[in-house]
Amino acid sequence: MKSTLLCSSICCLTLVSYAQPNWEKKADFPGEGRSATSSFSFNDFGFVGLGYDGEDFRRSFYAYDPIYDTWTQTESLGGAIGEGQERNTAASFTIGNFGYIATGQSGDPFLNDCWKYDYTTNIWTPEATVGGIDRRGAVGFSVNGKGYVGLGQDATGYKNDLWELDTATGTWSQQADFTGTARRFAIAFVIEGSAYVGTGDDGGFKNDFYEYKAATNSWIVRTNFGGSPRYSATGFALNGKGYIACGYDTTFTNQTDFWEYDPDGDNWIQLADFPGGPRANAVAFTVDTLAFFGMGYDTSFYYDIWLWGDTTDIIIQDTTIAIQSWQNADAAIQIFPNPITNYAIVEVSIPDYHGDLNITIIDMFGRDVSSSFNVIKTGFANGKYQFKLENTYLAPGNYQFVVADKKVLGAQQFLVL
Predict the structure, then answer these.
(1) 328: helix, coil or strand?
(2) Cβ contacts of residue 376 below 8 Å, gap of 6+?
C-alpha cells in the first residue's frame, strides 16, 4: 500500500480502487494450515477460524487487519463454554455486528447448532439450533438482515432445504427448497439482495447456478458456472460481482482457475488463475473493496492468504479522525520496549510544537481502550515529549498509541504480550 492507515471506531474507511485488480501475497494465517475453515467480516476486519489441520478439528479464530497485514487471535468458538465445539465445513454469515457459525462436522459427523459472535465484546453465545436435521457441507449467507443455512449432507444423504434465521425472534423457519438437485459443498455469495448458489456434489460434479430472491422466497435458474463442474470451490462477492475460485473438478484434481460473474448480464468471464496453487476447501472474506483468499488443501494443508484487488490508490473519507502516512506525519513516536508487558516509555517528537497533547489508545477493532492504560507525562526535553505507558488491564494484541491536539498528529502501533 502507498499509505499506512488507521481509523478509529467513529471513522468511516473507504477504499477506492481504480487500477486493474491483481493477486498479492499477504501475511500467513497463524499456526498450522487448515482446510474447510469458516469466515465472516465486519468493521474493516476479516475473521477466520475452525477447520481441520490433518490431525484435529479446530475451534480457534483469528482476526485479520488488512491495514497492517496482521493477525490477532480472538475468542475461540463457544468461548469458555465451547469445549468440544471444534469443527469444519460449517456454514457462516454476518448480520450487522454479529458473525454466525452453524452446522458442520467434528467427532460428531453432523451438527445443527448455531453460535453468534459479538466482536464488540469478543463473546460467543449459543443461538437456536438450525431447522431440519443435523448436517455438514451446507451453504450460509445473509440477506436483508436475515441469516440462511441450507443444502449440505446429513445421515440420510444430500439436502436441498433452506432455513431462515429471524434474529428478532431467534427462530428458524423453512423457506423454498433449492431448485437444483440436493447437494453438499456448493458455494454461495450475495449481491444486492439476492443470493447466488451453485456448483457442488450431488453424487457427481455440478456447475449449475441459481439466484435466490429472498424478498419473494423464490429461485431462478441462471447461466451455468463458466468453469468445469466441481465441488469444494470457494465463492465471494465484491463490488457488485461474484467470484468462484479453485475446487475439485471432473479431472479428479484441484484447480487454480478464477471466474467472475456479472449478475446484470448473467454471464461469466475467466480471470487470471489464482497464483497460490491448486486447492479445495479454501476460505475467502472481503473488507471494503478488497477480497482475501487462501488456506485449504491439495497435497498438504495450506495457511497462505492472498489479497485480490487494487491497493495502489487509496482514498480515505472520514467524519472525525483519520491517520495517514506515518512517514509524513507531524509526530515521530518511539515506544520501547515494544512488545510490552507491564509498561513502556514513549517519546513523541513534534518539530516546533509546544502545546498540550491528547493521547488515545485504540485497539484492533477501532475501539478507544484508553481507560485500560495509565498514560503519564514524565517530561519535555530536547524537543521530545516523554510518557510512561502503564498497562493496567488489557488483553494481548495489537494497539495504536494515537497523538492529537485538534487533529491527529501521529500514531504508533505496539503489541501487548
Answers:
(1) helix
(2) 387, 388, 390
Give just the sign of the alpha carbon dihedral 132, 86, 278, 288.
Answer: positive
CA–CA distance, 75 with 54 (Å, rounded to integer):
22
Distances (CA, A) of 12 to 4, 15, 72, 311, 401: 15, 10, 22, 17, 19
pLDDT at position 14 is 37
Tell me whether residue 24 is exposed, middle or buried, using C-beta atoms within 10 angstroms of its C-beta: 0 to 12, 13 to 18, 19 or more: middle
CB-based burial, 136-170: b 16+ in 10 Å, e otherwise: bbbbbbbbeebbbbbbbbbeeebbebbbbbebeee
| Phi/psi at 137 (5° precision) | 65, 30
| 69 touches 26 (CB < 8 A) | yes
Residues 100 and 85: their CA atoms lie apart, in Å, by: 14
Nearest in space to 37 (alpha carbons), one of 50, 54, 53 = 50
Estimate to the nearest angstrom the gap between the alpha carbon of 217 and the chain centroid: 27
Q: Which residue has the cell 488463475?
A: 273
Torsion of CA 194, 200, 201, 204, to 10 degrees: 110
Percent of the chain as helix, strand, coil, to the nearest 5: 0, 55, 45
Beta strands at 234-238 and 146-150: parallel, antiparallel or unpaired: unpaired
Contacts of 97 (CB under 8 A, 6+ apart): 42, 43, 118, 119, 120
For the entire predicted model, the pTM comes to 0.75
Q: How do residues 381-394 score in pLDDT, each as one tens digit? A: 777 888 888 887 77
* CA distance linking residue 407 with residue 405, whole number of Å: 5
Q: Distance between CA 89 and CA 201 in Å, rounded?
A: 14
- Selection from 279, 336, 315 nearest residue 1 by Cα: 315
For residue range 205-227, list pLDDT tens digits in order. 999 999 999 999 999 999 999 99
What is the tally of helices (H) and strands (E) in the chain? 0, 37
**Nearest CA among 402, 229, 273, 227 for reference residue 326:** 402
CA distance 50 to 102: 11
